[in-house]
Amino acid sequence: MRLLNPGPVTLTPRVRDALAAPDLCHRETEFFDLQDEVRARLAAVYDLDWASWAPIVLSGSGTAAVEAMMASMPGEGARVLVIENGVYGERMAKMADVHDIDHDTLSLAWGERIDPAALAERLADERFTHVAVVHHETTTGRLNDLEAIAAVCAAGDVQLLVDAVSSFGAEAISFGSAVAAVAATANKCLHGAPGAAFVLTRRSALIHAKARALYLDLATYCEKQEARGTPFTPAVPAFHALAAALAEHREAGGWRARRTHYRALASRVAGGLARLGIEAVLDAEQSSCVLRAYQLPEGISYDALHDHLKVAGFVIYAGQGDLAEEIFRISTMGDLHSRDMDDLIARIAEITAP
Fold it and tell me: What is the pTM of this model?
C-alpha cells in the first residue's frame, strides 16, 4: 500500500528492518548510545549549534511533541498568542486551554495567509511573551511564511514556538533569534516510524520553562538525556527506526534534496490532476512541498474516490471539518517515486472518465 496521507509514511526497507533491531533495555549503555546518535543527527539536519540548541526526544506522536512544547516553554507569567489558520493552530490553542496558559488567538479562515503587518500590529497593541504558529498547516497544505513571522517576533522581542511536525526535514526552517522551540516527529518528512517525536529547544529559553505536566516536561527530558538517561520507558524500536531514517536523510542530501524530490512529485500530481480538470485549493507558491489539497471532482464523493484508489493500492486523505465534502489531500512524503504518481493519476482518470 502506498500511503499518500500526511503521515505515517511508506517506509523504506532499511527503516522497516530497523524496527526489528535487537531488543535493548532503556537503562543500559546500548540504548543511551542510540539516543545520543538520534539527538546528534536531529541537530545536524539544520546544522544547529549544540551549545545553543538542545534536541529532546520523546515517545509519542507529533502532537505529543507540540503539547510538550506548549506545556513547557511558556514560563511563569507568560502570555501566548496562538495563530490559527487551520486545525493544528486551533489544536495549539486547545493545549493552552488544557494547561491553563494565559493566551489569546489570532484567528483566520482555514488556509488564509498570515499577514505579518497584522501580526505586528497585534503584538504592538497587547502584551505577549510568545507566539505559537504551525509552519505547514496540513488542513489545506498552506506553508506559512515562518521567516516573516519570526522577523516580526524578533522586532517585538517575542519568542516563537513552532509546530514543524509536517515540515521538519523538507522545508526551510528559520532558527533565528526569536525561535525558542521547534516541535516535530519522526514519521513525516524524516520517513521514520510512528512512536518517536522531538522538540529542538533553544537552551537560553529552556532555562525559563515551567513544568505543567509530568510526562511532557521538556526540562526533565533534557536533563536526563544530557546525562545519558531517560525519565520514562521510550519506544525503543521507533528510536532504532529514526536513527536509520536520519542516516538515509543525510545520505540522500538532507532537507534541501528532500524538498526538491517532494516538489517534483507534487508537481507531477498537480499537472496530472489539472489535465483531468481537478483544481488545486492553493497555488503551488502558497503550498508546502509536502502536501497539496484539491477540489473533489464534480459528482464524485470523497468516499468513492478513496475506495477506488485504495483498491488500486493508494491511501489518500480527506478534508477536515467543513472541507470534508469539498476537498481531498495528497501527500508525497515517504518511499514514493515518479512511477507511483503516474500510476495514481491513471487510477484517478479511471474514476473521473465520462
Answer: 0.97
